[in-house]
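If your schedule permits, I should be very grateful for your opinion on a structural question. What I wish to show you is a protein chain and, alongside it, a tokenised description of its three-dimensional fold. Would you kindly read the sequence against the tokens and tell me how you understand this chain to fold? Here, with my thanks, is the record as I have it:

===
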Amino acid sequence: MSSAHPVAETGPVRPEPEADDHPATPRDVAVDVAVVLLWSLAAGVAGALLWWWATPLPQATATPDGPALTADELARQVAVDGWFAVVAVGLGLLSGLVLVAWRRRDPLLSVPLVVLGAALAGQLALRLGGVLGPADPATVLAGRAEGAQAPLQLALQAPGLVWVWPAAAALGALLHLFVLRRD
């Protein structure tokens, strides 16, 4: 006599669905878009303020031919771009990590939203930084004595640096999805 117990045939075992396993509804997508938009606007404003605060602006000197920069001031002009890149990398990575972690249900929606939001944040920081910075030195130095100085405007010399922000956000999102994610 065999001591085998009868086993009920139940079919394949399926894991219990998680709360975030349902497909995104239009309302979910609208919430995602709104949160990423608000985050991006806040990040853009914070980025502009950080860039404005951290950047030592070069001084243009009045000459008979108009405002000019000395060699030392030209080096400081490069620092303007460098500080923007530092702010963009920091806030872009943070945006990618936080927003994709928050909305990990649908990475095919989250990652493009985060990258687009970061592009918006970068443009906003660039524009707002220009508003926060000083006026055009040519205007300030007009009619002033030779040797007078005025700070340069807060502006990028390499405008392509604005794309560092969305690239860093994409990297942050991918880091979360492929390295940090614990599912």
Q: What stands out?
A: Confidence is low (pLDDT under 50) at residues 15-19. The radius of gyration is 26 Å.
